[in-house]
């Protein structure tokens, strides 16, 4: 399915939403393509980030994603998630999945499996690719493949 071709409105969720950078980006792309966009769910564990997101967009993000049932998340076309990077970053502790924040990727997989959106956009640091000699990325890719959903994986480097 080509979302930009077959839809007039894109419904998305914004996991680990922070201040809303992903939301700004998708809303801009939708405007450029003459599409409506609708953020149907957002969450972030940081209360200050939630307050700023609310001030920026008028939506009140939910809190800890590990405490939210997938069935409580509205259906959506795109799942966006900038999951915590500290466990994989050279600026962090590099503990990967040994750090609780590192395991939050599996929350994305849980929601993908339950909701099966047409597309998803994960974001993390460049070091994720080589973390633990590539084993971390291998686990992530294997997890996504095990979902048996028709996603095509693409990678992009941004500055």
Automatic annotation (TrEMBL):
Record has Transcription regulation as a keyword: no
Any one Gene Ontology molecular-function term assigned to this protein's record: DNA (cytosine-5-)-methyltransferase activity
Top EC class for this record: transferase
Reactions the enzyme catalyzes: a 2'-deoxycytidine in DNA + S-adenosyl-L-methionine = a 5-methyl-2'-deoxycytidine in DNA + S-adenosyl-L-homocysteine + H(+)
Record-listed E.C. numbers: 2.1.1.37
Stated family: Belongs to the class I-like SAM-binding methyltransferase superfamily. C5-methyltransferase family.
Entry-linked PANTHER family: TRNA (CYTOSINE(38)-C(5))-METHYLTRANSFERASE
Annotated protein name in UniProt: Cytosine-specific methyltransferase
Species of origin: Microcystis aeruginosa (strain NIES-843 / IAM M-2473)
Gene: hhaI
């Amino acid at each position: 399915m080509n979302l930009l071709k077959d839809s007039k409105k894109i419904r998305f969720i914004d996991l680990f939403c922070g201040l809303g950078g992903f939301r700004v980006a998708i809303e801009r792309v939708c405007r450029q393509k003459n599409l409506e966009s609708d953020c149907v769910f957002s969450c972030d564990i940081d209360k200050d980030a939630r307050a700023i997101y609310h001030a920026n967009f008028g939506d009140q993000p939910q809190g800890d994603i590990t405490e939210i049932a997938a069935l409580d998340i509205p259906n959506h076309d795109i799942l966006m998630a900038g999951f915590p990077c500290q466990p994989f970053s050279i600026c962090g502790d590099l503990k990967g999945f040994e750090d609780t924040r590192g395991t939050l990727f599996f929350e994305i997989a849980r929601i993908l499996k339950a909701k099966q959106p047409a597309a998803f956009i994960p974001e993390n640091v460049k070091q994720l690719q080589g973390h633990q000699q590539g084993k971390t990325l291998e686990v992530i890719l294997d997890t996504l493949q095990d979902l048996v959903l028709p996603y095509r994986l693409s990678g992009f480097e941004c500055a």
